[in-house]
Each structure stands twice: as C-alpha cells, then as structure tokens.
Amino acid sequence: MLRISGTEKVVAYISDEFVLLLVTINPFAAVPVLLSVTAKMTAAERNQTAFRACLIASVILLFLLAFGQLFLEKLGVTLPALRVAGALVLLILGIRMVFGEVQGGSAESDAPAGDVAVFPLAMPLLAGGGSIAAIVAMTDNTVKSLAEQAVTAAVLLAVMAVDQPPLSGPA
Q1: What mean pLDDT is reported for the chain?
Q2: For the residues 111-139, what does the mean pLDDT come to?
Q3: Domain parsing of the chain, residue ranges
Q4: What is the DSSP string of 92-160?
Q5: Which of 26, 65, 49 minimizes the C-alpha distance to 118?
Q6: Which whole number is the average pLDDT over 132-146?
Q7: Which tens digit of pLDDT belongs to each residue from 98-108?
Q8: DSSP class of residue 118?
Q9: What is the per-residue pLDDT for 3?
Q10: In the chain, where do the E strands start and end?
C-alpha cells in the first residue's frame, strides 16, 4: 500500500492549485491581444504594460480571493452555481481553443482608448470569468482554513510571476 506523507500532500495541494490557476489564467491566450493592442509601443513599453497587467490582475484576483464569496452571498449566488458557471466558461474557452478562434484585433487597428493594461489585458483576459470562478471556489470559506487560503494567495502570486515573462516576450 502506498503511504503519502504530510509533505507529499502539501506538495500535491500546491501543485494542483498552481496548475489550475495557470490553466485558467492562461497568459499564452493573452499574448496575441497584447501584441495587437501594443503594436505601436516600443519593447520596453510593451514589457511595462505586461507587468502592469499582471499586477492589476493579481490585485483583482487577491481581492476576490478575500471577499469574493461574501460578495456572491450578498448577490444570492451559491458556490455550486459558481462552479457550474465556471465549468461552462472553461468548456466554452476549451472549445474555442480547439477550433482555433483567437480573440483580438489586427496589428493595424488603433489601440483602445484608456490603459490597455487594465482592459483588455488584466480584465477580462488574465482575471477573467474562469480565473475568478476558480479563485473564489478554491477559497471556499466554509471548507478552507485561513492557512489554506493564504497558501492559495501565495500560489496565485507565483502563477502571476510566471505569467509575466510570456506576456513580455523578447526585449
């Protein structure tokens, strides 16, 4: 019989959360949009925009990690309903990826007004429906302890640190 130690459980827990967040945040899907909306920027400006997008998305997701369930309860949305909605969002995204639909405009189009690090990069691409549903479901206040929620927050920050280099691309 295979025995699993406490350390192995922690490593499995952290790696499961890391993979789930990496897949739902999916920085690689944001790269074409980043290149499109920053087509007229220098490489340094593009890197700074990617960094700001990751930072803003991190703040949004950390806020929802801490207060998302309370907010949903006030709206009358249950966590099982959120999980179903999040699963449907991920299903639709998966189907779109399989059939090759790519979001974003062409390089010739003008960048949208406002800060592109906020919209469309940080929200909804990095901190979109799937990642919001995942982070709120992963930190269910009735199931997860404060320590487990802190680990999830640390894993989220690690994922966002990993997300930034693919968005920045070559300098």
Answers
A1: 84
A2: 84
A3: 13-104+113-168
A4: HHHHHHHTT------TTSPPPSS-TIIIIIIIIIIS-HHHHHHHHHHT-TTTS-HHHHHHHHHHHHHHH
A5: 49
A6: 89
A7: 776 545 444 44
A8: I
A9: 58
A10: none
